[in-house]
Amino acid sequence: MASPIAVYSLPDLKNTTDDALPNYLTSLDFRQSHFLTDVRLVLGYSAVIIAAITFAFDYKRGWNETKGYTYWAVVAYFLLNGALTFWIWFAEKGKIFQGATQNGTLLTIASSVAKHNPTYQLLVRWTDPATSEPFDWQTCEISAPFTTWFSSDGQFSAKPFQQWLSSEVPVIAAADGAGSRRRAQKERAGSELPSAMMQSKGPALHVNPQNGKK
């Protein structure tokens, strides 16, 4: 069981719930895309590497020899940080999940929490591969209080959270239903395997204790 969190800390409540959402969706038919996170990491680490190299070069060679390089390094550093800020605010925009199913359904989910309001809000967008337009996005906004899946002592309960998602978002409900059917089929197959193995065994060998006696 995970350790409880502070129920009065909205960032902790949101972060814990944000972490649970991709785990639930990837347990269904969704494959998560890490493109947004990968770009953010590349931008952030590139800026850090430039700053570290500039510092080391300046420390070893001195300011007079490195000031020309330092100027361009500072420019590159601020450009990368500007790009990173733009990416976080305008590309990611609070997205906590981006993925697709095997049949081509695209899904993106962004989360938010208003100040001093313990309500979890989601903006869900998805495509229906059955429609004629490949990027005809459908959108819904859902919200629920954190107390729906957090206990009074800060314990997170996954089942009510998953039930809330599947009851509010049709594409998740469809994937959850398909996943439940697959799990049921696996459970039936697992329960039938021992009996099938028992039936495949031949009859037991009985030895007559009288054999061999005169």
Features:
single chain; 214 residues; alpha+beta; five-stranded antiparallel beta sheet; 5 helices; elongated
Explain what the structure shows:
- By secondary structure, the chain is α+β, with helices and mostly antiparallel strands.
- The protein contains 5 helices and 5 strands, in the order αβααββββαα.
- The longest helix is centred in the last third of the chain and has 31 residues, at 170-200.
- The mean pLDDT is 85.
Chart the SSEs and their pairings.
Layout: H1 10-26, E1 31-32, H2 35-61, H3 63-92, E2 95-100, E3 106-112, E4 119-127, E5 137-145, H4 158-168, H5 170-200
Antiparallel strand pairs: 1-2, 2-3, 3-4, 4-5
Helix pairs in contact: 2-3, 4-5
Rg measurement, Å: 28 Å
Order of helices and strands: HEHHEEEEHH
Largest sheet: 5 strands, antiparallel
Question: Overall mean pLDDT score?
Answer: 85
Distance between the termini: 69 Å
Q: Report the uncertain regions.
A: none
Principal-axis shape: elongated
Helix percent band: 40-55%
Number of helical regions: 5
